[in-house]
């Protein structure tokens, strides 16, 4: 019988399979505890890939190792093995149960993992049985006390993870935020709840009436207000509604806030949501978590002390096994203490600690995490304040992804508005990418030449060797099939990477980030606060996309501001309106401004336009409620643009301004929809008509008026998308660096501008406004 695996390799595997998996499991735990906290600060794809692989391999490696240890206990020892070696490996089984409990910094990689809490609970029982089997198989074992202590520690850690997953599941959130009935029998309960709410607010040093203090809140008070709103508004995470009392106090609070304080409250609240959904923080700050962590850490330290001070026998265990065991003890204890050191200064801990004596110290510490702004000139030479908080102190990424349709259609390099940061890195990456493309094109051309000469030479050889022996003919034919083999390998590699069809998707090089500027946030939050002065239109905000158009009578733009442009907003599908205004905004933006007076509105429109197009095309889950047939419309518009640019010989010009001039040079004397019908969803020339109408308005009313109007349109598009975005996708974005749309959605909910309000509460508020 043929040997499939060489005996040397098999011997190495038999000797090191368990040891290798134990070391792998320990390494994965280290990676998770160190890098998992970074994912809420950046959407970096390499970090996401590392954490995804580590999260999946963590459970697999631990389970596989426990299975091998259980199998190893039934084997007969080899003559050269130490007598107690299998008994030491039995000690590793509860260590792996400790690893299955996972680090405190990540319990779930995605929200779907929280829904599997019952599976993890069953896994706890099965792993406990597996560990007990290993221990029983190893008896009599002089290390049984140490194994028992580790078994207790591992069970507690696994229980913590299961409870954290349960508390973060959507069913738990819905069950814990059940609304009190409006019936009279529940009136007493509601009054008691309101009284408790007042008492909770009294614990804060300053009341909600901020006008007496000019809205000047300390860092600690901002954090505690965020934590309070997080507890009151948990139901927002699962699209639940809440009472008018909660909405009223929230609206009163946020309507008086300064824009920067509001941003700090919102980012702290979103941070609490992230920790509640993806980490063990909510468990560790409960009495159950305190008990389990005390027992777990105490058992682990006690087991290490007993193991270290036990009577030693030099021939009892392998030297490598002793080193691995000590490494697991020391690294495990270090990781536990590191987790505690991460939890103590966390926002959650500082929000629940109530010792007035240390409040100044806590406030000073939180001051290190405050928002930092840096003055930076944009491409037009105007100075702006951009968010520049140090990476390790950030609570979210603090940037807006940008994607521009016209730049993509002519393959133009994206020009950043605020592009000083990372310029050298981007240039180096472009140089590498350019070199890679040149190499690919060179080999492609070389292969074409070789294929031609190979075919000619093959035909010549066939004519010559017809009379040769068959064996020589077979050998020659074999050598001529080698190029076809390499061609097959090349196609196998390039097809999944889509190297030969880069236009079939949006490459990452056409997406870039812009830092959040203070002016952008001020304009958004100021507009939201101004909506409170127009309550008679609030009920319209709940209109869903596709019912009668995304803004059928719901827009807060004045009719005189639209100047006859309502047909591009009212009774129009959201995705179509977004594409129209995106292309029209870019066409107008490429014209040099006549002055710097309207620069803020112009830059705001450009940033939000590209940001919303990025969300529509690259975040389809987040925009699923309003996207409609956005991708079909994008595809048809792109096809029409490429056809038009090819006809004008500028398809690869990489010049947006040239493309803009050619588009606007086309006369559009009719509605493109009447000409195309349902054959195409393209909006290219309809957007050109909109841009021309905006130019006419600019001639009549001035450039500043046009950009103010366009910026308000983009605010309405952003607000509608935020109000109707998918709840699950919103929460998933918190683990990928966060998005501006999350802040807009939460601000709208706190200001009472969303649709998360019970019908009875809406009627009450409507009567109050009247």
TrEMBL record:
<feature type="transmembrane region" description="Helical">
    <location>
        <begin position="322"/>
        <end position="344"/>
    </location>
</feature>
<feature type="transmembrane region" description="Helical">
    <location>
        <begin position="465"/>
        <end position="486"/>
    </location>
</feature>
<dbReference type="Pfam" id="PF04578">
    <property type="entry name" value="DUF594"/>
</dbReference>
<feature type="transmembrane region" description="Helical">
    <location>
        <begin position="116"/>
        <end position="136"/>
    </location>
</feature>
<dbReference type="Pfam" id="PF13968">
    <property type="entry name" value="DUF4220"/>
</dbReference>
<dbReference type="InterPro" id="IPR007658">
    <property type="entry name" value="DUF594"/>
</dbReference>
<feature type="transmembrane region" description="Helical">
    <location>
        <begin position="47"/>
        <end position="70"/>
    </location>
</feature>
<dbReference type="InterPro" id="IPR025315">
    <property type="entry name" value="DUF4220"/>
</dbReference>
<keyword id="KW-0472">Membrane</keyword>
<feature type="domain" description="DUF4220">
    <location>
        <begin position="52"/>
        <end position="408"/>
    </location>
</feature>
<feature type="transmembrane region" description="Helical">
    <location>
        <begin position="431"/>
        <end position="453"/>
    </location>
</feature>
<keyword id="KW-1133">Transmembrane helix</keyword>
<feature type="transmembrane region" description="Helical">
    <location>
        <begin position="16"/>
        <end position="35"/>
    </location>
</feature>
<feature type="transmembrane region" description="Helical">
    <location>
        <begin position="290"/>
        <end position="310"/>
    </location>
</feature>
<keyword id="KW-0812">Transmembrane</keyword>
<protein>
    <recommendedName>
        <fullName>DUF4220 domain-containing protein</fullName>
    </recommendedName>
</protein>
<feature type="transmembrane region" description="Helical">
    <location>
        <begin position="142"/>
        <end position="159"/>
    </location>
</feature>
<feature type="transmembrane region" description="Helical">
    <location>
        <begin position="90"/>
        <end position="109"/>
    </location>
</feature>
């Amino acid at each position: 019988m043929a040997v499939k695996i060489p005996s040397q390799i098999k011997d190495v595997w038999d000797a090191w399979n368990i040891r290798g998996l134990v070391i792998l499991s320990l390494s994965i735990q280290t990676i998770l505890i160190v890098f998992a906290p970074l994912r809420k600060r950046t959407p970096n794809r390499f970090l996401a890939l590392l954490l995804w692989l580590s999260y999946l391999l963590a459970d697999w490696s631990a389970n596989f190792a426990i299975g091998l240890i259980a199998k190893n206990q039934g084997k007969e020892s080899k003559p050269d093995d130490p007598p107690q070696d299998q008994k030491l490996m039995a000690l590793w089984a509860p260590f792996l149960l400790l690893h299955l409990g996972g680090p405190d910094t990540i319990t779930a990689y995605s929200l779907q993992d929280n829904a599997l809490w019952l599976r993890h609970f069953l896994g706890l029982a099965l792993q406990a049985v597996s560990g007990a089997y290993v221990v029983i198989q190893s008896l009599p074992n002089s290390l049984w006390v140490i194994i028992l202590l580790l078994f207790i520690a591992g069970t507690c850690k696994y229980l913590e993870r299961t409870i954290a997953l349960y508390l973060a599941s959507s069913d738990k959130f819905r069950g814990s935020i059940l609304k009190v009935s409006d019936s009279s029998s529940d009136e007493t309960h509601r009054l008691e709840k309101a009284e408790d709410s007042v008492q909770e607010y009294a614990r804060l040093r300053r009341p909600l009436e901020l006008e007496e203090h000019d809205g000047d809140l300390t860092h600690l008070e901002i954090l505690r207000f965020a934590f309070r709103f997080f507890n009151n508004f948990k139901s927002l995470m699962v699209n639940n509604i809440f009472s008018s009392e909660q909405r009223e106090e929230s609206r009163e609070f946020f309507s008086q806030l300064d824009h920067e304080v509001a941003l700090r409250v919102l980012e702290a609240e979103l941070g609490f949501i992230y920790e509640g959904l993806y980490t063990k923080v909510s468990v560790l700050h409960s009495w159950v978590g305190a008990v389990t962590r005390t027992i777990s850490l105490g058992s682990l330290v006690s087991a290490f002390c007993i193991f270290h001070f036990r009577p030693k026998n030099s021939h009892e265990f392998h030297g490598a096994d002793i080193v691995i065991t000590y490494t697991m003890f020391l690294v495990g204890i270090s990781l536990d203490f590191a987790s505690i050191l991460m939890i103590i200064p966390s926002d959650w801990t500082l929000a629940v600690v109530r010792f007035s004596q240390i409040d100044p110290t806590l406030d000073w510490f939180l001051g290190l995490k405050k928002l930092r702004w840096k003055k930076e000139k944009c491409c037009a030479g105007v100075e702006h304040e951009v968010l520049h908080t140090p990476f390790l102190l950030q609570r979210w990424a603090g940037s807006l992804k940008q994607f521009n349709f016209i730049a993509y259609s002519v393959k133009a390099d994206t020009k950043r508005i605020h592009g000083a940061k990372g310029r050298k890195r981007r240039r180096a990456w472009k140089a590498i990418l350019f070199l890679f493309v040149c190499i690919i094109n060179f080999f492609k051309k070389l292969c074409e030449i070789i294929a031609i000469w190979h075919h000619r030479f093959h035909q010549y050889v066939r004519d010559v060797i017809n009379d040769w022996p068959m064996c020589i003919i077979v050998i020659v034919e074999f050598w001529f099939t080698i190029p076809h083999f390499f061609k097959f390998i090349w196609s196998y590699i390039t097809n999944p990477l889509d190297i030969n069809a880069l236009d079939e998707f949006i490459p990452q090089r056409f997406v870039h980030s812009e830092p959040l500027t203070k002016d952008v946030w001020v304009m958004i939050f100021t507009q939201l606060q101004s909506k409170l002065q127009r309550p008679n239109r609030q009920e319209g905000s709940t209109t869903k996309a596709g019912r009668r158009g995304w803004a059928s009578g719901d827009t807060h733009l004045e009719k005189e501001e639209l100047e006859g442009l309502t047909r591009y907003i009212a009774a129009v599908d959201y995705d179509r309106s977004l594409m129209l205004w995106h292309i029209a905004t870019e066409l107008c933006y490429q014209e040099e401004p006549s002055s710097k007076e309207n620069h803020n509105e112009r830059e705001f429109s450009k940033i939000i336009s590209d940001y919303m197009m990025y969300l529509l095309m690259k975040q389809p889950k987040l925009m699923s409620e309003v996207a409609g047939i956005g991708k079909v419309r994008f595809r048809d518009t792109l096809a029409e643009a490429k056809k038009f640019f090819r006809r004008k010989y500028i398809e690869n010009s990489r010049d947006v301004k040239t493309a803009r001039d050619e588009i606007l040079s086309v006369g559009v004397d009719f509605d493109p929809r009447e000409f195309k019908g349902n054959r195409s969803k393209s909006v290219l020339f309809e957007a050109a008509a909109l841009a021309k109408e905006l130019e006419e308005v600019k001639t009549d009313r001035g450039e500043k008026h046009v950009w103010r109007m366009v910026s308000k349109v983009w605010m309405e598009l952003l607000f509608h998308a935020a109000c109707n975005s998918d709840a699950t996708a919103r929460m998933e974005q918190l683990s990928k660096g966060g998005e501006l749309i999350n802040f807009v959605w939460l601000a709208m909910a706190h200001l009472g501008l969303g649709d998360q309000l019970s019908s009875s509460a809406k009627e009450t508020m409507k009567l109050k406004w009247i």
